[in-house]
Amino acid sequence: MNRLSPDGGGDDGNDGSESLASPLLLPQRSLINSTSQVALVGANVCPIESLDYEIAENDVFKQDWRSRGKKQMFQYLFMKWSLCFLVGLIVSVIGFFNNLAVENIAGLKFVVTSNMMLAGRFKMAFFVFSASNLVLTLFATLITAFIAPAAAGSGIPEVVGSISAVSASLVVGKAGPMVHTGACVASLLGQGGSKKYGLTWKWLRFFKNDRDRRDLVTCGSAAGIAAAFRAPVGGVLFALEEMASWYGWLTILIMLLWRSALLWRSFFATAVVAIVLRALIDVCLSGKCGLFGKGGLIMFDVYSASITYHLTDVPSVLLLGVMGGILGSFYNFLLEKVLRMYNFINEKGTVYKILLACLISLFTSCLLFGVPWLGSCQPCPPDALEACPTIGRSGNYKKFQCSSGHYNDLASLIFNTNDDAIRNLFSRNTDSEFHASSVLVFFLICCVLSILSYGIVAPVGLFVPVIVTGASYGRFVGMLFGGRPHSSLNHGLYAVLGAASFLGGSMRMTVSLCVILLELTNNLLLLPLIMLVLLISKTVADAFNGNIYDLIMKAKGFPYLVAHTEPYMRQLTVADVLSGPLWTFHGVEKVGTIVHVLRITKHNGFPVVDECSQDDSRVLYGLILRAHLVELLKRKDGFMSTSAESRGGGVEFSAADFAKRGSGTRDTIDDLEISAEEMEMYVDLHPFTNASPYTVVETMSLAKALVLFRQLGLRHLLVIPKITNRSPVVGILTRHDFMPEHVLGLHPLLFRSRWKRLRLQVPRTFSIF
């Protein structure tokens, strides 16, 4: 094995532990990247690893690719579309039964509680309400904490836990869990078969690589959003704008041109979701689904009639956008602080996680049951579209403590499911249905409870709570500015625009949010106003902090690369952030050396260098993956007695031997049994080495390298020297090397002085070099 010294020289010895331990890089460079990997919920997660999206173009791969005929290509394309169809079908069924269960469980709880209140048994009603919420929350917490701590696996704990959490009257949503459920379903279907369960069909083996699995997971995420909101086009845009880890906002258009096939497959999956949901909803409209009715799947069809607005309405819409940006950024600030506080509690153990969730449930029940007593009783409107007050069933006009013929407007918002509350706020021709004080109280309660509920150990989402919070804020603003002469904006339309502004201020997405809201309200005439408030709220909020997803990923320590480059990256070169030591292999390497390096390091890629017999110089041959080395050592077919034997060790291997397994257990170096005699043998690495890895020169700016690394979806980026007479490779850049915590940790003076000044002078742009 070849070690590179700081001056570019090398040591050709293959033995000796002392030389093996010599570091590669300069002494002042950090040897460890200590980016935090602690999850906010205290889950015992594994260190985050990138995936190998880049195709390893070694001799084995090329031989397999040349051997594929038209039949194999047809099988490959057919399986891609078939799996997308299955993803859409399964996710749509899961989404339907998810909503069906929530509507029936939560509806039954509200019906029983309301019947007890009609009988004057208020204490018993509160006990039943709080106890049922506590049991449902406890169940969601237990199934998450013990069965799926990271909400991973098959997705079944995610679905069941989400049903329990949403039915427990927590101010949480099911959109986030549905996205994860869709990703889980896609991940399971894309495992490429399983020897354990006898799924060894050759057609499935095409998907034993990270690139195809990533594309299928993207389709699953889009299907999850489509199933949660019945928004197929919005689901596709959401997956492209937010879910694809290495696609930036301004690179969406480029991605569409590069990967148009992925766009069509995602659209196909969401179209399947829309068709299946439509068919299932038609069955439920006949009354065969219990309490599940029009309020089941989220579809706020409240503006099917034509609406008009004028130039005089623009100032109030602008105000909505500005206030939504300010409130959304402040909401993110509070949520981040609460999540960090929860982290300290959850780190104490599982018992503390469960106790925290139970306390939040009890506090929520007390607030939801107690606050409506402060509301006033309103006479039922004569033109109500449903029975008023609601008695003996789930409905929107809650009688609560009021007398006959009256309803409690505050209870109609609080003592209800989130979907029905949003529908009440969005509804038109209801300007006199709610008092401004009731809407303001509801807005404050939604803010507090959604922030407190999101950090518990349960599958919970944030999309619906942000919508209901923004809708209440928008309706309150509409009550303050509504009723002006020459204004045609009613309170329901203000609620829609308020939800859009709050979503833009918190989540900072624009295109996908705009389309999702249009699909939710079923009216294209709202497009100009929604676009306006989204753009304004996002612009205002960006001046204060990042979007909520970026803040959470940063707090969890996920090595997520943002779409833009920071100004300080233009002052640094890639050589300034390299960390070591770096280990390289010869083209023909000793087995004992490979085993030793794999045992003392956790690196996933190693440069392979060759010696030139003419001038004793060394050249970079390529990059070999850790998984491929482990497979070579496991098979032992390519072992040679001497290093002088001819190449050709790869003829006994096929691409299927190096295909990446699914999410099951993988072989590690510690699982291999290699004798002392085999340790002295050699193996030819050339046929298994990617001979064309991506490389950059050591003088390239860090900003330019980040753009290249992110847009190509790389895991390793080799750094080569500027001067040709030096060592053939200087180091390897990985995702962690671009993280601000790592870069500013190596250069603290840049953070303390020049970086602060540059952030005030240089705008944060999405510049592409």
TrEMBL record:
Keyword presence, Cell division: no
Membrane topology: Multi-pass membrane protein
This protein's UniProt keywords: CBS domain, Chloride, Chloride channel, Ion channel, Ion transport, Membrane, Repeat, Transmembrane, Transmembrane helix, Transport, Voltage-gated channel
Pfam families given in the database record: CBS (PF00571), Voltage_CLC (PF00654)
Regions that span the bilayer: 76-97, 124-148, 216-240, 246-279, 291-311, 317-334, 354-375, 440-473, 493-518, 524-544
Record flagged with keyword Transport: yes
GO cellular component: chloride channel complex; plant-type vacuole membrane
Xref: Gene3D superfamilies: CBS-domain, Clc chloride channel
Protein localization: Membrane
Domain CBS: 688-749
GO molecular function terms listed in the Swiss-Prot or TrEMBL record: voltage-gated chloride channel activity
SUPFAM superfamilies: CBS-domain pair (SSF54631), Clc chloride channel (SSF81340)
Similarity annotation: Belongs to the chloride channel (TC 2.A.49) family.
Stored PANTHER family: CHLORIDE CHANNEL PROTEIN CLC FAMILY MEMBER (PTHR11689), CHLORIDE CHANNEL-LIKE PROTEIN CLC-G-RELATED (PTHR11689:SF92)
Protein name as annotated: Chloride channel protein
Lineage: Eukaryota, Viridiplantae, Streptophyta, Embryophyta, Tracheophyta
